[in-house]
Design goal:
Blueprint lengths: L7 H7 L3 H12 L14 E4 L6 E4 L5 E3 L13 H12 L7 H8 L3 H20 L6 E9 L16 E9 L5 E8 L13 H11 L8 E3 L9 H18 L7 H13 L4 H14 L5 H5 L6 H5 L1
Helix pairs in contact: 2-3, 3-5, 3-9, 4-5, 5-8, 5-9, 7-8
Bound molecules: zinc ion.
Length: about 300
């Protein structure tokens, strides 16, 4: 098996127009052939007069689009542009913001922003299915947006704590990491995490088979695995160098994107194919749902 890492140029040559994306989408979505989502019948007419093939069940006449149930459902953007965006956001060697993406795939800023947020949503769904197992360590860390919304020449600082948790392998190295925002109101006097914040994280993100996760409270975090500390300390830079500070409302989706890239840093091809799977399996979210989203709060998740 080849371990060759596919470059963006090679990927772009392979998926250069809509028609070049259809076969892989069909074969990944229905690996054992088409099946009617309503009656399970395997016989269908393929209607090819549309932009993308439409399947009409011979039994119940239900019409299924190729994009039904995918994160892309309802989008008018061409498939290969989605594919290229997917490659760029999953690629462990870098990240991409909406301005850059809009230039590369030739769409408006708003469309690029929406595509990236929908892909982050798919990443989030994938992460939710993966609990930390084995030897688990948990620490607290902080995101400082250091943003440039200057009012009266004063930079607004609104540090937001997050929990960093990791599964460690036999050598004590991080094998999977999760970064989860704990929302704090702007003027909250104490941004230290409480016992409840850690236990809520564990309840939601650590497998119940893990009897004793190691929680390194507050400044004791430097007793934890070095890599976990280095990862958490690097988060503000990783986010700000590309996105120039993100609001607490969307922080969780950027944390998930960063951790996705870290978790697949040694497997770049896998990073892209895994996100392609999530792209197919994650139902779409609307712009309205994305912007009305409340900051993720561990307290709220449990309540
Ligand atoms: Zn049917």
């Amino acid at each position: 098996m080849s371990t060759h890492v596919v470059t963006f140029d090679q990927f772009k040559r392979k998926y250069h127009d809509e028609a070049s994306c259809v076969p892989i989408l069909i074969s990944t979505k229905w690996p054992n052939g088409y099946r009617c989502p309503r009656c399970d019948c395997v016989d269908a007419y393929v209607i090819t007069t549309r932009r993308l093939p439409l399947y009409e069940c011979r039994n119940c006449k239900y019409q299924a689009s190729l994009l039904v149930g995918t994160i892309m459902q309802g989008s008018r953007t061409l498939l290969h542009k989605w594919f290229q965006a997917l490659f760029l956001i999953a690629n462990p060697s870098g990240s991409i913001n909406a301005v850059q993406l809009s230039t590369i795939i030739q769409v408006t800023y708003k469309t690029a922003w929406l595509i990236l947020h929908k892909l982050r949503h798919a990443i989030q769904q994938g992460d939710a299915q993966q609990l930390l197992t084995g030897l688990v360590e948990v620490i607290s860390a902080e995101y400082n947006p250091c943003n440039f919304h200057i009012k009266g020449f004063k930079t607004i600082r609104n540090e937001q704590p997050f929990v960093g948790g990791a599964s460690l392998n036999f050598y004590g190295e991080v094998s999977y990491v999760k970064l989860k925002h704990v929302f704090m109101p702007k003027h909250h006097p104490n941004k230290e995490l409480s016992y409840w914040d850690y236990s809520n994280f564990i309840e939601t993100h650590v497998s119940s088979s893990v009897r004793v996760p190691f929680i390194h409270y507050g400044s004791k975090k430097y007793n934890a695995c070095d890599t976990l500390n280095i990862i958490c300390d690097s988060v503000p830079v990783r986010i700000n160098e590309r996105y120039y500070g993100v609001s607490d409302k969307h922080l969780q989706s950027y944390l998930d994107e960063v951790s996705y890239r870290i978790n697949y840093s040694l497997k770049p091809n896998r990073a892209v194919s895994k996100l392609f799977r999530l792209f197919i399996d994650t139902p779409a979210v609307t712009y309205k749902q994305l912007i009305s989203r409340k900051p993720m709060c561990l307290h709220l998740q449990v309540a």
